[in-house]
């Protein structure tokens, strides 16, 4: 019996996410990101293809490390301009019934109470289809824009994030008992105060006291995603995440990352299969291999290397304008995304990456692999990756929008279904139930379940 493959779409509320330059094609719709109909159309396409979710990335700040200025990012629309992704979710949730929505939100610039309130609201409005992709931020420009001199050091950001999560768990799990909401019209009592509790937290970074404003949503705590690939980020993911993004550009690197995550889960007291693993991937699929390769060649011609360098410099914290194209990418500790540089310079022992190599690679699909071919060829590769690395599925980035996802639904999904490797209908339940197969809420031994109020199941 073939392993089931999970698919999510990976987007940002912007023109160019992980493929700068592609918006210039006459038939590309990426520049329509300001039009509500653009997002509704994508959501409906993904639901027609039985995607588990649409995950919306986000960053605070602009990519200004390359050349010590934002000019390259601004010229190429490399993740700027970018709008708030949260406001898109009610729009798309209203247009769909099953598709999940993952929202990237940084703990660096939020108060736990306000973030918890926003996610509870979204979980209610979507009927339990919300996930939170937890990030700690990596752009110094974002810190400056919000009035800070600089981000906290890399590992200190994760220490703060651990405490942030504790406050959120107390709010989501510990304030309202199940059954606290009565809705008793005859007596005029909406909620039972005896079953609603004030939380009290005072720690190194946060202080919070009081009753949570929101009644519990279908999932209480949203489904938790995380993508930290550094040593500290991996420990954080093993403690909190139920689904984990992996960004290694080669199968060797992906296998190594998956093994490290599974071991970290065990070290954290969880089962090695207690989290779903998703690899970043870009797919270009067409009716024939020749057509797919021709499209890929056209995309490579349109790709903006300047935009790719702006993104790479921001991800790694290293100004790549100071290097020649054929210089080797050697690992250097920075306070940006440490796993970004490691994914090129450490994870694959069989390849030495130059700046040129990394730029050409990242220009289409960021730090994930690219698979090109007809439906059978792409399905072969996806099944081989899953079988070889032990991951559960893929976060698919777009190159041409909305064509990337339309073609996956038109060509790849039916081929995977024919092989018995992809679902033919949605399961019922919340996003957590659909992806993990258990209940709607956090379950032991997840750390968040420890904060559950007495009487909350």
UniProtKB/TrEMBL annotation:
InterPro entries: Diverse_substr_monoxygenases, Luciferase-like_dom, Luciferase-like_sf, NTA_MOA. One of its GO terms (molecular function) is oxidoreductase activity, acting on paired donors, with incorporation or reduction of molecular oxygen. It comes from the Bacteria. Pfam families: Bac_luciferase (PF00296). FMN binds at residues 58, 104, 154, 158, 230. Residues 29-392 form the Luciferase-like domain. Keywords: Flavoprotein, FMN, Monooxygenase, Oxidoreductase. NCBIfam families: FMN_nitrolo. Belongs to the NtaA/SnaA/DszA monooxygenase family. This is Luciferase-like domain-containing protein. It comes from Burkholderia plantarii.
